[in-house]
Amino acid sequence: MPTRYQYEMILPRRNYDYDVMGAVTKCTLSEKEGQLAQTLSFDAVNIVHSGTELLSLFGPDNPVRLLADDGESSGEVFQGEIWNQTYNEEKKTISYTCYDPLIYLQKSSDALFFPAGRSTLSILQEICGKWDVPLDYSYESASMEKKAFSNTRLSDMILEILEDTKRKTGKPYQIRFQGGKLLISGRGVNTTRYELAIGKNLTSVQHTISKENLITQIIITGKASENGGVPVEAVLTASTAGQRGTLQSVRSRSGDTSLAEAKKEAQEELDEHKNPEHTYSLSAPDYPFLRKGDSIQVNTGSFSGVYYVKSITHELTSHTMNLEIEP
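Above: the chain sequence. Below: its structure as tokens.
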């Protein structure tokens, strides 16, 4: 467990690195499900440094680095830039929202076409190459169907390609900004596996079972006829449909995909979503270097084993963390 919590909030300006951590009253560092960019949010008192107010020194576009030392490890836990700044005149405080460089993939859209047969890796290399994003890729690669993106956010393109690869290979992935690059790898490749356990460091445990994303039936449709009719080429029903009820999804088969391939992919989707989803929410003393996608050892009494971080929020000022995990 961490033996101390020390942070440096470095904001460079005019060849000088300002450490503003002493002015910070609240700070969170989070990685959410479905989002690429890491988010750093903090409130600071509008202190005066060398005759200049903090408010005048820093604003949107200013680089930010967050360094941590927990007594066991030390290093950088965030690198990005200020995106939003709000000043409270009454309280004399400033609220900042910062993102790592992957925010540009979340905020930018493009129109790109990839013919059938392109691999996961080659598509991502083309996207990242066009947008000058350094890529560090060690995840699986699979042959993709035709992809025609029109006015689509780059992050959505990347996640769609990775989700297709996950369905085809059965292997989960993780994606993050690390070491100045877009890092895409298999899930749980962290070298240090933290242990969270009741009676040791867990302060709260919640287990939710939800049918929210349940699918028990998928129909596959073909190409529309001249009169606009859409033929149903196949219907796949999960073994749990009788128990769970019918919750149907539709998949449109493109001309580049055979019916056998479409049925295989639909079956993979059914297998993934045919049962209720289990979500586990934990609270514990903070481990500053724990990130989304990392594996952890969990023992709550009611469930135990190796789990993976689905989302995480580090509360730097209270030295706690809240995370959702999955098997």
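The longest helix spans residues 154-169.
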